[in-house]
Specification:
11% strand
């Protein structure tokens, strides 16, 4: 997310001199595969990728490192490139005094997490582009986000800042090293014996309720981010507490987001966030992880309420992903840019006269009212001196109310809307399109596998299961080393970069969700293998570290806070808790408990920031359930039991299917199932709660009553 950039940073150094620039050498990013790095390959800046060569040169010449971290669809990253990194004066200063390194945060979350944590400690804020100036030993001296070429809006400009920092380094290198090391030593985590409390979840609910925007939905004021894991937590707590206010908060937010400009009313899918409090004016980039998380969230809402509009939204998101973001081989691309031809949102905006010309006078008159189109536009251009009559399309109210207002039936209006949408999409697709980042990331594809699998199960749509299978197989065949290790990124037929903790966690969770719909024991075994690798290589000190080692950075990092995506420790906790339920293996329970206790001190300080971790914790401290169905998959009785099990919202329940041909395979994974057999040769269900199983059930109606 390209958040509003930082205010003037708190710097560890003070200012000095200015000197004459020199010309940069050839750019070294042209041989990279990252779309973000390739965007900077023609800059006059002498960029290095993060590499040994850059640090060897920095050490040899004792030059500071200018580190710039961003991603290909980041709006403010583009602004800083245009203003500064394409500028000869800035490039000459960087070339003369610094070793300049570019990092794609999506490829290297370990680097991004460490220096983002540094930035937030130094300045109190964070965002992208992230700007770090550090010693040859990678110890940070200075942190900021977006910086202009020349100082303005209380921000220092690079033309002034770079010579000052270089001068201070030339005159006082030892003092700067000492100050930086002292700061880094305070940055190290401290031990805490805080115990995890079930009350943390109730505290989080109280915090979220106090910040809820009752007028517009969501939490706090602008900018507003979807944060699907927060709303999923509210839905789960609604079931736990039977508090209708929690469902009302979630539903109001889901409706406001779907109706608002943050949702692409023509091509579907969610934009990154809303710049206003009403969900109307979006920041236009589209991220894969948002689509996956939100599709799963709307499916939860559909299961709880039975309201078809939530199911329709999930289907629309899946349609967008499969049409715009899926590689022909099965993987899913990372993002679409906010900008088109250097202007944010240009692809998505409409003038009223254009809509009337496409839709015709009568239909156009109705739908311009329906989508709140204004003659003079409802969107202000960011381009200086450019006037616009452009509109963002958004909705309000119920379709039924609009139909009555227009004097037509709801079905007529619905059909008219869909016909018009297709016409507008056809027209829009002929415009210049935003840049699409076509790299495939393991973790984000794991999220899509989870969402598609839930869609297949809840919507009873086998095509979604096949799409989930294709994505899972893409990861497991094209993004692995010969010895079975996951790789982080695939692009243009090449997989590279050792996977991080989040990749193992999210792919393992995706495979568990895929098992829940396919009931193929192979998927369960694949999930277990990845989860074992996750806890073997990344778990320590009560957390899951981002990387498997700490050689590349001054400190190893872990991100417990649930941000735009649930944190790696939160997802790892969910995976361990689910495997504990499915297998009955105490090792998984112990691993989950260690993560709970390791996070307790941070959760206590700000429970609302750990919504997914708290939701996952319910499997350990709440009413967990394991459902084992014994019977032949294609037997009508088995199918009825499965249909019953999947009909209701059961976020804490795990499901196993035992067939004659896989009994030994399932028993090896879950020994507690060994004595479970069919009763009277009928498909049979065993419902277990908190590791105690009730009597077997063969009647779907009785199973439904128990559930």
């Amino acid at each position: 997310m390209s958040l509003n950039p930082l205010l003037p940073p708190l710097c560890l150094i003070s200012a000095l001199m200015v000197a004459a620039p020199q010309t940069a050498d050839a750019n070294r990013l042209k041989n990279e595969l990252s779309p973000y790095l390739l965007q900077h390959a023609d800059n006059p800046v002498d960029w290095y990728p993060w590499s040994e060569a850059a640090f060897v040169r920095s050490q040899k010449e004792q030059r500071l490192i200018f580190l710039s971290i961003g991603y290909s669809t980041c709006h403010w990253c583009h602004v800083m490139e245009r203003e500064s990194f394409e500028d000869q004066d800035v490039a000459q200063l960087l070339t003369r005094d610094f070793i300049s390194i570019k990092v794609d945060r999506e490829e290297r979350p370990d680097i991004d997490q460490f220096y983002m944590q540094v930035a937030t400690r130094m300045t109190g804020q964070g965002g992208w582009p992230l700007t770090i100036i550090m010693t040859p030993d990678k110890v940070p001296l200075f942190a900021a986000t977006y910086l202009p070429k020349q100082g303005r809006y209380n921000r220092p400009g690079l033309l002034d800042l770079l010579p000052q920092i270089a001068g201070a380094w030339a005159d006082h290198p030892q003092q700067l090293r000492k100050d930086a090391q002292e700061f880094l030593s305070r940055f190290a985590p401290t031990a805490d014996n805080q115990k995890f409390s079930p009350d943390f979840a109730r505290q989080a609910v109280r915090q979220m309720t106090s910040e809820y925007d009752a007028r517009h939905g969501g939490f706090g004021s602008a900018p507003k981010f979807p944060r699907p894991h927060q709303l999923a937590f509210l839905l789960q707590r609604y079931q736990t507490e039977a508090n209708p206010q929690l469902l009302e908060m979630a539903e109001a937010t889901l409706t406001a987001m779907r109706n608002g400009g943050i949702y692409d009313q023509i091509g579907f899918g969610f934009h990154r966030y809303s710049t206003d409090s009403r969900w109307l004016l979006p920041h236009f980039e589209k991220m894969l992880y948002d689509q996956a998380g939100l599709a799963a969230l709307y499916l939860d809402a559909f299961q709880i309420t039975g309201k078809t509009r939530y199911a329709e939204t999930a289907r629309e998101i899946f349609g967008y992903l499969q049409q715009r973001m899926q590689d022909p081989q099965g993987g899913f691309y990372s993002a679409e840019d906010a900008d088109t031809e250097g202007v944010e949102g240009r692809t998505y905006l409409w003038e009223k006269s254009e809509l009337l010309a496409i839709l015709g006078k009568e239909t156009g008159a109705r739908l311009t009212r329906f989508f709140h189109v204004e003659e003079n536009g409802n969107f202000s251009s960011e381009v200086p001196g450019e006037t616009t009559q452009a509109n963002i399309l958004y909705r309000s109210g119920d379709l039924k109310d609009w139909a009555e207002r227009f004097g037509v039936t709801s079905e007529v209006l619905r059909t008219e809307l869909e016909t018009a949408r297709k016409k507008l999409l056809l027209k829009r697709n002929k415009r210049p399109q935003p840049f699409r980042d076509d790299k495939v990331l393991a973790a984000w594809n794991g999220m899509v596998v989870s969402a598609l699998s839930k869609g297949a199960r809840v919507l009873q749509d086998d095509s979604l299961r096949r799409a989930a299978e294709d994505s899972a197989d893409f990861i497991l065949t094209k993004m692995r080393t010969p010895d079975g290790r996951l790789l982080r990124r695939w692009r243009n037929g090449q997989a590279a970069i050792d996977a991080f903790g989040e990749d193992y966690a999210y792919v393992a969770r995706g495979l568990l969700d895929l098992y829940a719909v396919s009931l193929d024991p192979l998927r369960l075994q694949q999930a277990i293998t990845l989860a074992e690798n996750l806890f073997r290589d990344f778990a320590a000190d009560g957390t899951i570290y981002t990387s498997a080692d700490r050689e590349d950075l001054p400190q190893r990092t872990s991100e417990r806070y649930d941000g735009a995506m649930p944190s790696t420790p939160s997802v790892a906790l969910e995976v361990a808790a689910r495997l504990s339920q499915l297998s009955g293996d105490l090792r998984w329970q112990q691993r989950a408990e260690q993560l709970l206790e390791g996070a307790a001190a941070e959760v206590k300080r700000y429970p609302q920031g750990f919504s997914h971790l708290l939701a996952a914790a319910e499997r350990m401290i709440g009413r967990s359930r394991e459902l084992v169905i014994v019977g032949q998959r294609n037997d009508p009785g088995t199918q009825e039991l499965l249909k019953t099990a999947r009909a209701s919202y059961q976020p804490l329940m795990s499901l196993l299917l035992i067939e004659p041909e896989n009994r030994s395979q399932i028993a090896a994974i879950a020994p507690f199932t060994q004595g479970m057999k069919m009763v009277d040769d009928l498909a049979t269900a065993y419902l277990c709660e908190n590791h105690a199983c009730g009597r077997p059930v063969t009647d779907p109606a009785e199973l439904a009553a128990r559930l």
